[in-house]
Amino acid sequence: MLDAFKSLVLNYSYEPLQFCTARHAITMVFGGRAEELDSAGYLVRTPSTSFELPTVIRVLKMVRRNRKKGLAFSKKNILRRDNYTCQYCGLSNHPLTVDHVNPKSRGGKTNWTNIVVACKTCNLKKGDRTPLEVNMKLVRLPRKPDLFLLSFHPDRMPMLKSGKSTCQTISWPNL
Ligand SMILES: [Zn+2]
């Protein structure tokens, strides 16, 4: 459940670093590696306590990054770029995989512009075909992110948009 929620991680200098799962954010806050800056009204209950799910956290140690190098091409960063959302059906609460838009068997490259996040269902449906052949549309065209993680946008944070008025309770053992 918690893996469906994302938290924004800020550097010690308050510069946005990346998004992580709320579960990871909680672990960082409770482990003393980060502080919670904002929450969205989701209450997490454990047998002994309850706390709000953090939506924005700040690491307590400066994370240095090599900007010239750019973002590493990895599954993790593809997931981040695509906001952990299937680029065919737009769902994020399904098991996610990565998909070659132009299939590998047809010479499709493994790079930023040909790999997207796809849920297992869409990946299976698409198989070894192009999106056009199966009449599937991409939510947006994949591109190499230029430090996209630095550009905070509420659309990437459904939790933030929900506001504090809708307080929901999540039981910790079921996370
Ligand atoms: Zn899908």
Please give a handful of descriptors for the protein shown.
alpha/beta; flat; 175 residues; 4 helices; 16% helix; DNA Binding (I), subunit A; binds zinc ion
Structure at a glance:
The protein is of the alpha/beta class and 175 residues long. It has helices at 22-30, 75-81, 120-126, 158-162, and strands at residues 6-10, 16-21, 34-45, 50-59, 96-100, 115-119, 168-171.
Explain what you see:
- The protein has 175 residues and is α/β, with parallel strands linked by helices.
- It folds into two domains: 2-66 and 155-174, no CATH class; 75-126, DNA Binding (I), subunit A.
- Helices cover 16% and strands 27% of the residues.
- The chain has four helices and seven strands; from the N terminus they run ββαββαββααβ.
- The protein has a five-stranded mixed sheet with strand order 2-1-4-3-7. Strands 5-6 form a two-stranded antiparallel sheet.
- The N and C termini lie close together (5 Å).
- Residues 150-170 have low confidence and may be disordered.
- Zinc ion is lined by residues 86, 88-89, 91, 118-119, 121-122.
